[in-house]
Each structure stands twice: as structure tokens, then as C-alpha cells.
Amino acid sequence: MNPFRILFQHNTPRWVILVIDLLFCLFSIVIAYLVRFNFNVPEIEIKGFKFVFGAILSIRFLSFLIAKTHRSIVKHTSSKDSQRIFITITAGSLLFVIINLIYFYGINSTFPLPFSIIIIDYMSSLFLMITLRLLFKALYSEIINPYREKRSVIIFGAGESGIITKRTLDRDAGLKYKVLAFIDDDEKKEGKILEGVHIEGFNKLDELLSKNDVAQLIISVQKLSPDRKKKLVDSCLNYDTKVLNVPPVTDWINGELSFKQIKKIQIEELLERNPISLNIENIKNQLTDKIILVTGAAGSIGSEIVRQVIQFHPKKIILLDQAESPLYDMEMELKDDFDKLSYEIVIGDIRNKERLENLFKTFQPEIVFHAAAYKHVPMMENNPSESILTNVFGTKNVADLAVKYNVEKFVMISTDKAVNPSNVMGASKRIAEIYTQSLGKTVKTKFITTRFGNVLGSNGSVIPRFHQQIENGGPVTITHPDITRFFMTIPEACQLVLEAGTSGNGGEIFIFDMGESVKILDLAKKMIKLSGLALDKDIKIIYTGLRPGEKLYEELLANEENTLPTHHKQIMIAKVKEYDFEFITTKIQKLINCFNKQDNKLIVSQMKALVPEFKSNNSIYEELD
Questions:
Q1: Which of 29, 294, 336, 553 is the most buried (most CB within 10 A)?
Q2: Contacting residues for 372 by C-beta, under 8 A, at least 6 apart
Q3: Which of these is catalytic: 150, 178, 375, 417?
Q4: DSSP string across 439-474
């Protein structure tokens, strides 16, 4: 074993550190005298040296005991330790000055200790105590983990956050990592040195990654555009470099960043888009001081609608859901930040009309956001009667009561799977759309529908499943190598729901710009790389085949032939077939009546009669087409 390693295995006793510090002070005062008198100290000064020496060491000794400077672990000296030493030495030297002045004006009209000696002693003591501690720390760091063995890190962003990131790295993980370079988009910073590290332009990133074994790139920039983030990650993944993210300042512990808080970047962050521009004033006018009902309020979309709506200070927001535990979690979340008077938690099922009627009668909601629904394609393919009972009958209940109790606006959350549906779930949502749209033509209540695709992080969606499979060591399962999906973040989807819902005049089916479709295979590969694993070496991808009712490609009707533009570039109005309310009500009631027979094929055949474009895919119901 390295003898130096043995030396550093144990912490130096406190009394030894105190003795060494006092020896530094003795050395400093001797040096101060020699320098002050050009290495030829007069005899008169030598006679008084014993008194001066005793007084200085006594004061230093007492100040060290009070400030506990000897209790810190020298090999882990921090900026706070240096700050404590600075304050202690400064306070002691100021006391020397005070004693000097008292002696001069009150006793002998002479200074027992020349001010020049006080200054030299002060600077010398400060330098020795701080510098030698830092040298000891550096020696310890080099012996335990030599610089050449430390793994390289690049920090993206040479601003204040970048500096804090580097200092955090030095403090918390300096034994393992060294900062190779800063990368910054600001050309004025390029070529300069920050905290002893060179600042390079973004164009040098690939060169740095190719020539060095870079373990991590840490993104310290607090607000980085999604496109820039994607380019950074793609460059790093080509060289097996992990990408980490510094959390927002609001998440720092007591305002201080810890290295443990710097986490690996998540795939959800790479699927984000630029912030949405909303008509905040219009949304505020529509929601402020209103009584608002959110069905499915404990779900992914419903809960986020609650979070966003409550920011506009409604008179009351009613959270309705049948899921007890998630609804309780929402109550605990709101309890910390909002007055109990501004929200009401209601456990109930939209299929229970009596329960719903009591809710409408009691609270008299003015705006309804209807997010309650069954949404999983394979589950509904195997249970079509439940999809009818919840997605159709439940929606009909809420819509009918909204009309009865004079609700101003009813905003229904639908899905891209309602477009040319290939499964029971999508068809049930399309039937619900048809009912609310046709109902809206006969009443004062404004019925508005919003459609969008998959949302990131929703319960049961593909990304949480991939995360779990990767954590378990694989394999990652994909239904088909060519399958693609549209993705949108939950907050983004709900912002567009509020924008479309509050600006709609009734009868519209709004569809959202979902961006480009994502190939699920590429998504899985990137997630595996982001986890620091190698495809086919650490983890495999296997194909399981399309599930019942599943499409390879989702549709949004997002083209000029079948959509109309709106005031918002990310929101369009779908041009869809309209139905006569009396005709559709009879057909839907006939469909609902099929529930009691529990005949899946009968139910699906009735659905196909209602929605002619419903063509089953990879399903036992294909024979009914």
C-alpha cells in the first residue's frame, strides 16, 4: 500500500492542528519583526519581544478556541473553513490594534507593537493557515485519486450557474471528476479562462468528445431551448458521454446546489417543445371567480388541468374522480398551497347519474372540463361494455346535467384515436364526441371538444414502461419496429385545452399541433443510451407484435383539407361530419342498452353502425367490418 495513503487514512487530532496553527502564528510574528527591521532587530525591540510574543500567542490561542478553527478536517477544507479562519485572524489583529491604541493614549504614549508588524503578521498568518490547508487538501486529493485518473467532465454554460456547478463538483465530487472545459454559445467568452478552465465554443464540442474520454456533460444553463438540448444530447450519445442536468434554482436545498441533485437528463426533456404562447388575459376572464368542475381530476390530464385552472383563482374548483387514493394525493397537494374554500374533493362515478345530479345541484358549476374516461386500447378491446358505460354513457350523463343546470361551457378531452378509429376505445370516444357536438346545437351550453395524442408521463404510457424495463435490466418490448406516435407534455396539452376551451364558441372539435411523430424504436434506443447502457450488450429490444386494436400510425386530421385555422397556430378546428341530435340520441341509447346483454360482438357491431369509419385492426372484431 502507498505509505502516503496510510498517512491520510486517519484524521489529524484536533490538538495537533491547534499546535501547528500556533506555530504558524509564532513563525509569522518572527518574520514580521525581521521584515520590519530589515533582518536587524534593535535591542530595545528584542527586550519587549517576550511580552509581545506572549500577548499575541495568548490572543491567537483564545480566538482559535472560540472560533473552533482546529476542529475542521484539514483534508476536506472548504470555503467556509477559509472564511472562518479569515474572520478569526482579522478579529485577533484588530484586537492588537485596539490594545496598541489603549497603551498609547492611556499608559505610555508609545506603541508596544508597531502597526507595520501587525499588518505583516496578519498577512503572514492568514496566508500560512489558509494556503497550507488548501495545499494539504490538494495533496490528499492527488494521492487518493491522481489527476490523471479522474474522469473528465464538460460543463455547458459558462455563466453564474456554470461557475456554481464547477464549485459544487470540486466540493462534492472532486476526487472522481475534473472539469475539462466549459462550452458556451457566447462568442465573447470563447477562448477565455474561467476558474482555471478554458471556455470553448459549441463548435468545439465534437472535437473535445472525440479526443478525450469525457464521462459526463453537465447542462448548467437554466433555460435551454429544446432544439439546443437535443443537439447536445445527440453529440454526447455518439461518444457514450452521459448527459446530466442542473435542476432549477428553486429546487436547490437551502439555496445551495448539491452534486447529488445533478441528475441524468430524461427522455421527456428531449421531447419538449418551445413554450406555448397563451392568451392569458382571455383565459383569466373566463375562469376567474367561476365555479369549475373537473371530472377525472385524479388522472394525468385532469390533475394538471386542476393545477393550471386553480392558478386563475376560480371561485371554487370541484375535483371529481372515483379513484380514492390518487384523489387523496391531489387533496394533499392542494392543501399545502391553496385555501380549502377554493376547492372541493368529491368521490363519485360519472356512470352514477344520481350522484352526479346531487353534485350539479349542490355546487352549480359554470364550466366543466370532462377528462374522466377509460383510455387504454387493449383493455377496452377486451372490455367493450365498460368503454360504452364510461366513455359514452358517463359522458352523456355529465353533458345532460350540464345542460339541465345551465353550465356555460363544457370542454371534453378526447383523443387522436377517435380519428378513423381502429379500436373500441377510439370509437367510444368518437361516439362521445358525436353526442356532445350534436347536443350543443340544440342548447345554450357551449360544447367544445379537444383532441390530442399521447402525453408524456401519463399513467400506463410507453415511456414510464420503458423506464421500468430498463431499470429491471430489460428486455425493452416494442410492438412493431415501424410503430410511431405523437407526443406532448402534460402541461403543454393542458395549456392548449385551456386556450381552446376558453376561446371556443361551441360545436368545435379542436385538434392540437403535436409536432413530428416519433418512431418508438428510436425512442427506446435513445432511452437505453441515456441510461448509460449499450444496446444488445447490456440490454435487448424485442418485438411483441401489435396489440389488439393498435395502429402503426396515429392520425390527427392535421392538414389543410380537413382542418380550419384558429387564432392560435398550434390549435386547429377539425372539419367532421355533423349529426342530427334526435337521430343520434336514439342510436346511442340503443348502444347503451346493449350493456345489460354483455355481448361484446353486439356492442361493437352497434358502435360500427354509429361510426362507419371504425375499422378494427389486429382484432377479433375485424370480422364485423
A1: 294
A2: 295, 296, 299, 302, 320, 321, 350, 390, 394, 398
A3: 417
A4: HHTTSSSEEEEEE--EEET-TT-HHHHHHHHHHTT-
Cα separation, 387 vs 549, whole angstroms: 14
The CA–CA distances, whole Å, from 528 to 239, 242, 244, 266, 624 equal 14, 11, 15, 11, 41
pLDDT of 522 higher than 50: yes
Q: Using one digit for the tens of pLDDT, what is the confidence trace for 583-608? A: 999 999 999 999 988 999 999 999 99
- Residue 347 CA to residue 520 CA, distance in Å, equals 36
Decide: 602 and 594 in contact? Cβ < 8 Å: yes
- Give me the amino acid identity at 212: N
Cβ atoms of 330 and 345 within 8 Å: the answer is yes
The answer to whether 545 and 479 have CB atoms below 8 angstroms apart is yes
The separation between the first and the last C-alpha atoms of the chain, rounded to the nearest angstrom, is 78
Compute the CA torsion angle 53, 58, 59, 62 (nearest 10 deg). 160
Are the CB atoms for 380 and 374 separated by under 8 Å?
yes
Q: Please tell me the distance from the alpha carbon of residue 535 to that of residue 545, in angstroms, as a whole number.
A: 20
Contact status, residue 296 vs residue 321, Cβ threshold 8 Å:
yes
CA distance 621 to 625: 7
For 584, the enclosing helix (H) or strand (E) is helix 581-593
Hey, do 147-265 and 280-624 end up sharing a CATH topology, with the first three levels equal?
Answer: yes
Rounded CA separation 267/188 (Å): 32
* 342-352 confidence digits (pLDDT tens): 899 999 999 99
DSSP 148: G
CA distance 561 to 331: 45
Longest dimension (CA), the chain: 119
- List of E strands, 473-565: 476-478, 484-485, 487-489, 509-512, 518-519, 541-543, 563-565
Question: Three cell numbers at 572?
Answer: 386547429
What's the angle, vertex CA 74, arms to CA 73 and CA 75, rounded to 5? 95
d(Cα 18, Cα 68) in Å, to the nearest integer?
9
- CA dist 268 and 491 (Å) reads 12
Neighbouring CB atoms inside 10 A of 52's CB total 18
Rounding to the nearest 10 degrees, give the CA dihedral for residues 565, 568, 574, 580. -100
In CATH, which of 3.90.550.10, 2.170.120.12, 2.30.38.10, 3.40.50.720 is domain 147-265?
Answer: 3.40.50.720
Looking at 127-131, 257-261, 392-396, which range is the least confident one? 257-261
What's the rounded Cα separation, in Å, for the pair 472 and 262? 23
Residue 451 CA to residue 416 CA, distance in Å, equals 6
Q: Pairing between strand 541-543 and 367-370?
A: unpaired
| Residue indicated by cell numbers 385545452 | 497
d(CA 470, CA 533): 9
Say whether 441 is catalytic. no
pTM of the model: 0.69
Instruction: Give the residue carrying C-alpha cell 476542529.
Output: 71
- Look at residue 437 and tell me whether its pLDDT is greater than 60: yes
Q: Is the pLDDT of residue 623 over 80?
A: yes
Extents of the domains making up the chain: 3-144, 147-265, 280-624
